[in-house]
TrEMBL record:
Predominant localisation class: membrane
POTRA domain mapped to chain residues: 37-110
Assembly notes: Part of a complex composed of FtsB, FtsL and FtsQ.
Signal sequence, renumbered to the chain: none
InterPro entries in UniProt: Cell_div_FtsQ/DivIB_C, FtsQ, FtsQ_C_sf, PLipase_C_Pinositol-sp_Y, POTRA, POTRA_FtsQ_type
Residue ranges that the Swiss-Prot or TrEMBL entry lists as coiled coil: none
Transmembrane segments: 12-32
Protein name listed in UniProt: Cell division protein FtsQ
PROSITE patterns the record matches: PIPLC_Y_DOMAIN, POTRA
One of the protein's GO biological processes: cell division
Provenance organism: Advenella mandrilli
Subcellular localization: Cell inner membrane; Membrane
């Protein structure tokens, strides 16, 4: 009898505790799903030290339309972060809840560094991204980079080398192209083309290998050192192309000479 009473009391106590837990859980669930906790505002800010040039509330709204799930308590911040990062100009998004119905969204934008192939861009981290190029600042003058898939970091690296080597000559780089055979062509700011041949530094990503290729840095160094001497010899003629694929020199192609003489027309009085 005594044992039965103890078992009965234990069972009753367990049932009572479970009932209380269920009531509390139900109350929390009911409270957490009240309309006052529905997300109704998103505050957008740049990350510290940055500004937002391309991301707007309208572009964010277009990105998240119909994709956010949950309210202040139930929304999954990691999943929501990934949704925001699908917005074209957003490189990284940082989220936190703002009581009782909001989110604070801090954005790091892609900073465009160069155009890549036909319709992509490279940011200042050397990462590819796709966004509306028409939204670029009208004063933006980005170089054009071209290359096989997966070669963008190598192209960025070579561009940096070119800029450093060419600085004493006051040349900029308008376009740099790495062909499918991993050979370089460069268009300078004066429209002159440099043909530089294959790059042994591309061995890691070049399925054809780099046998017979000449060091990229030694090729451009040879051009830079020879340019002042060449300038003294060409007598002011414009050069269209410099072929640097030779090991001990290079070939130049002059721009066509316009031999048309100006004709003055005078009326007879």
């Amino acid at each position: 009898m005594l044992n039965n009473a103890r078992v009965t009391n234990l069972i009753a106590n367990v049932i009572a505790i479970m009932a209380v837990i269920i009531l509390i859980a139900g109350g929390i669930y009911w409270l957490a799903h009240r309309p006052m906790f529905n997300l109704s505002r998103i505050t957008i800010e740049p990350v510290k030290g940055r500004v937002l040039n391309y991301v707007s509330p309208a572009s964010i709204q277009a990105t998240i339309a119909g994709k956010l799930k949950g309210n202040f308590f139930t929304i999954n911040l990691d999943e929501t972060k990934r949704v925001f990062e699908t917005s074209p100009w957003v490189r990284q998004a940082h989220l936190r809840r703002v009581w009782p119905d909001g989110l604070l969204l801090k954005i790091e934008e892609h900073e465009p560094f160069a155009f890549w192939n036909e319709n992509q861009m490279i940011n200042t981290w050397g990462e590819l991204f796709s966004a509306n190029q028409a939204e670029l600042n009208s004063e933006s003058e980005l170089p054009q980079f071209n290359g096989p898939d997966g070669s963008e970091l190598l192209v960025v690296q070579r561009y940096a080398e070119l800029v450093r080597w060419l600085a004493p000559l006051k040349f900029g780089v308008n376009e740099i192209t790495l062909s499918d055979r991993y050979a370089w062509r460069v268009e300078l700011s004066n429209d002159m083309e440099l043909v530089m041949g294959r790059d042994p530094g591309a061995d890691a990503i070049n399925p054809h290998g780099g046998q017979g290729a000449v060091s990229f840095s030694s090729t451009i160094e040879r051009f830079v050192r020879s340019w002042p001497i060449l300038q003294n010899r060409i007598e002011g003629r414009k050069i269209n192309k410099v072929d640097l694929r030779y090991t001990k020199g290079f070939a130049i192609t002059y721009a066509p000479v316009d031999n048309t003489l100006p004709v003055d027309s005078k009326e007879k009085k």
